[in-house]
Amino acid sequence: MKSLNAHKAFAALALLAIATAATPENDATYRARFAAFMANPAQFDYSPMEAVPGAPRLRPLVAARTSGITAAALDEAARYAEANRSSALLVWRDGRLEAARYFGSTTRDTPLVAKSLAKPLTAIAIGRAIMLGRIKGLDQPIADFIPELAGTPKAAIRVRHLLDMRSGLLDQGYSPDPDHPWNRAYLDPDHGNYIVSSYPLTDPPGTRYAYANAPSELVALVIERATGRRYSEFISTEVLAPLGAAGGEVWINRPQGLAHSGCCITLPAETWMKLAILLLDDGKADGTRLLPKGYVRAMRTGTPQNPNFGLGIWLGEPYRERRGFGAPRTLGPQVLHSEPYLDPETFLFDGNSNQTVHISPRHRLIVLRMGETPPKTPEWDNAKLPNLLIRGLKAR
Q1: Antiparallel, parallel or unpaired: β 347-351 and 314-315
Q2: CATH code for the domain of 350
Q3: If DSSP codes are grouped into helix, strand and coil, which group holds residue 81?
Q4: Smallest Cα–Cα separation from 389: which of 78, 9, 143?
Q5: Beta bridge partners of 73
Q6: What pTM, to 2 d.p., does this model score?
Q7: pLDDT tens digits, 316-335
Q8: Lesser CB count within 10 Å: N end or C end of the chain?
Q9: Residue 38 falls within a domain, yes or no?
Q10: Residues forming beta bridges with residue 365, ordered by sequence position
Q11: Does residue 41 have a cis peptide bond before it, meaning omega lies within 30 degrees of 0?
């Protein structure tokens, strides 16, 4: 563990980097990124990437010798995943991997683009930093780590607000304007500083739910300032290594710059499954507590502004047939849930293009689907896979 002086030195270097990053060269890089993104967002090149090493000794998930789910249910789940352009379908039940299906060129070792599955990872990272004593708790002001915010309205943002989407920062959206905050906060080679100094605060922190990438992107800055360690190294050492999980890469805004913690990390499917198992097991891995007692319960608790969203994760109850990513009853894309989850305690990781990891505490069942955007017809159904497999559980 680094000394307090080392942490202060790291923070000073980070402040220096922020102060010197706004250059004509960076602006040219931004303009080139923006043009490439507008031309083909689906094929945007996330570079540069920084390694996020996995555990020195990987611990593969143990395959079930005798399936606890009917073959018919597993086969139907595989057909549904394949028809919806999936890259991976993993089904885990109570300590054993019931099914692992990979499609196309994807294998168990293939790092998969996470999209917003990265957001639950930010909550796990914060919980780990709290466990290590580097962050006092969820209600600590982020200005304690980002002193540039002192004396501004953003100083009222607390750590929890970065995770539960109540930061008060501008909602996520789309604009073809190269100077719009949405684009600068995503593509700028100094995106962290831009969010701190220029990204709009539209509401008092804690008063409104507003889904956006910007607050999640600030988690990397908080972790680095709080621990004196790079975000990639912290995730590698403090999260992946204890899980025996494989690593991958994360997009950084420029060489040796800040990680994009809100979206752009690549990890194999089994690693995402192990993160879900960590939460199912109340923040413990192999009997060792990685997250504070009660932290997973906090992650699974919604807010008055959005009862379906906790800390980086979505909650199955209250049931909504169509649930958007934005605030309840606002316009925007809506995800179909054809019926309530059979386990009302279900919670999930949910990212763009229907990257989903459903976690059923009642049945100790986890269902992961990752891949490309499903076809528009028939419409993707978020309740299909978990409910299908719960109905297929064999009696014990």
Answers
A1: antiparallel
A2: 3.40.710.10
A3: helix
A4: 78
A5: none
A6: 0.93
A7: 999 999 999 988 888 888 99
A8: C
A9: no
A10: 93, 360
A11: no
